[in-house]
Amino acid sequence: MKTDHVDLLQIHYVNYVQEFQQIMSEDGAYRAALEAREQGKVRYIGLTGHRPELLAKWVTKHEFDQVLFHLNLAQPFALDELIPAAAARDMMRVAMKPLSGGFIQPVDKAIRYPYSQDVHTIISGMTSAAEVKENLAAMARDVEEPEKDELERLARELGEHNCRRCNYCSCPLEIPIPDVMISSRIRDSFGLLPKGDGFYQKHKEKIFSCADYEPCRETPLCEQKCPYHLPMSTVIRQATAYFG
Ligand code: SF4
Ligand code: SF4
């Protein structure tokens, strides 16, 4: 890496209580990160995950410098507890997936929502110079109160699906459940970006096969695993309407 230290070491994608306990155990990753920091190899230690409520609890009880979480118009959940908890401890707050994997449009609105919130950095996946320019243009001016209120109202609406993208659920047919959950409301309100439409075309057959999948007729397998008790099978089956 041609450096004697890294600025930020993140303990990444921690979504289960058992995982966090393992990290914090005597010989876990957190202790190794602390040792690396003491030796000057690492400046800051961060934590990342997809369950904002759990992250809020963990960063409140333990010492981390930074936290990374989803924050976009379709996933505003970090606003409830995590961002206030991290701000109270003066932690670095990094929002990821402002376009929710390419589902949210218009891009300008999508970027301006996390930009209007109490975060230091927004990580947006970009694949061309044109996308970099588009993302930067969205942040060319500050977000004033009326626009912020409007974006927050929209986020409450688009976040009604309540999926945190925790990936506790899995589908034997390999239907990407969280992507369908999160994009369903956006799709109905705004349509989809080309990338989002490509996703639906790619998974069309699988989405259609959900309704006929025998093992899920009585009790959908996915729904037994969701910590938020969400009606995934209904949303997946309704998603077939996208294809006309
Ligand atoms: S209900 Fe549908 S999405 Fe859920 S596990 Fe069964 S087939 Fe997969
Ligand atoms: S549907 Fe439930 S279990 Fe699946 S990713 Fe979303 S919140 Fe997690």
In short:
This protein has 244 residues and is of the alpha/beta class. Helix 3 links the parallel strand 2 (42-48) and strand 3 (66-70). The chain has two domains: 6-157, NADP-dependent oxidoreductase domain (TIM Barrel); 177-243, no CATH class.
Q: Would you count the extended β strands for me? A: 5
Order of helices and strands: EHHEHEHEHEHHHHHH
In the predicted model, the low-confidence regions spanning at least 5 consecutive residues are none
Shape: globular
Mean of residue pLDDT? 95
Protein model, in words:
The model has no long low-confidence stretch (mean pLDDT 95). 36% of the residues are buried. The chain contains eleven helices and five strands, in the order βααβαβαβαβαααααα. With 244 residues, the protein is α/β, with parallel strands linked by helices. The protein has two domains: 6-157, Alpha-Beta Barrel (TIM Barrel), CATH 3.20.20; 177-243, no CATH class. The structure holds iron/sulfur cluster (SF4) (2 copies). The site of one iron/sulfur cluster (SF4) has 15 residues, from helix 8.
Write the layout of secondary structure elements.
Elements (H helix, E strand, L loop, with lengths): L5 E6 L5 H8 L4 H10 L3 E7 L3 H10 L4 E5 L11 H7 L3 E5 L10 H9 L5 E3 L5 H10 L6 H14 L18 H14 L3 H9 L1 H6 L22 H7 L6
Parallel strand pairs: 1-2, 2-3, 3-4, 4-5
Helix pairs in contact: 3-4, 5-6
